[in-house]
Amino acid sequence: MIEHPNPGPNDLYPTRKAGEPALLYRTDPVAYGGPGDGPIDAETLTSYDEKGFLTIEELLAPEEIERYRAELRRLSEDEAVLRDERTVTERGSDEIRSIFEVHKVSEVFAELVTDPRVVGRARQILGSDVYVHQSRVNYKPGFKGKDFYWHSDFETWHAEDGMPRMRAVSISIALTENFVHNGGLMIMPGSHRTFVSCVGETPNDHYKESLRGQEIGTPDPDSLSILANKHGIDLFTGPAGSATMFDCNCMHGSNGNITPFPRSNVFIVFNSVENTCEEPFAAPSRRPEFIAARDFTPVGDR
Ligand code: 6CS
Ligand code: FE
Question: Does the beta carbon of 101 lie inside 6 Å of ligand 1?
Fold first, then answer.
């Protein structure tokens, strides 16, 4: 095993290194671009800066959604996809939890990456050209869809993928109705301005279990209680076609789904080309490229 610990002096967000948790101030901006840099208006951009997220009522039209839902079904029935290492199943069942690098697995989902409604907003928020750090569909099937415990994506991407600064944004597009009861995305509004330094070293090949249920790199209950009492918890509901864009450091999670109604979303993570991943800051080795891209080519179709 080649050791890749990044002892770099530029570790502004140390995590998984100390014996105690810590709440650190964010030293990075949130919205890097301005109102004139893309489709997001000034009021929404200010709200994004303050809360760490924005919502879009109808990003995709119903007929577009139908096409993506058909693709979801096709992927879930494709034997090659089911055998692919990029397909992650739920704990305790063979139900599909996620398909990573879905923009390469599927030409249909690839169209979202260069869609100006998507990448135009990402470039505006990040204030630069962007590349896809990660993409996935989360199926969260009815009855057996498991939870995604509280976490900051950036904490993982910093520790395990070597992402230096907080200059990445996720878009989550609902492909099925996100009800109050079928395991919708929860975000603590404003939590993106606090970095929770977690306790516990990253095991070898951590992704093999973390993508099915993350433990290492999740905050301790006291830190979560402080953030939840300070910020509250927003639950994102909305019809298929609605979307949420959220900062890489938002504290978020989602409950399991015991209803008959799947909560399937597609996620695309855009990182600034000025924030490309280095060596992991707190992990023995890099994660596979289908989870953390090492091709930093900017998304085209400017
Ligand atoms: O480890 C990761 O990169 C993934 N894990 C979670 C729970 N959210 C972000 C990302 O999909
Ligand atoms: Fe996440």
Answer: no
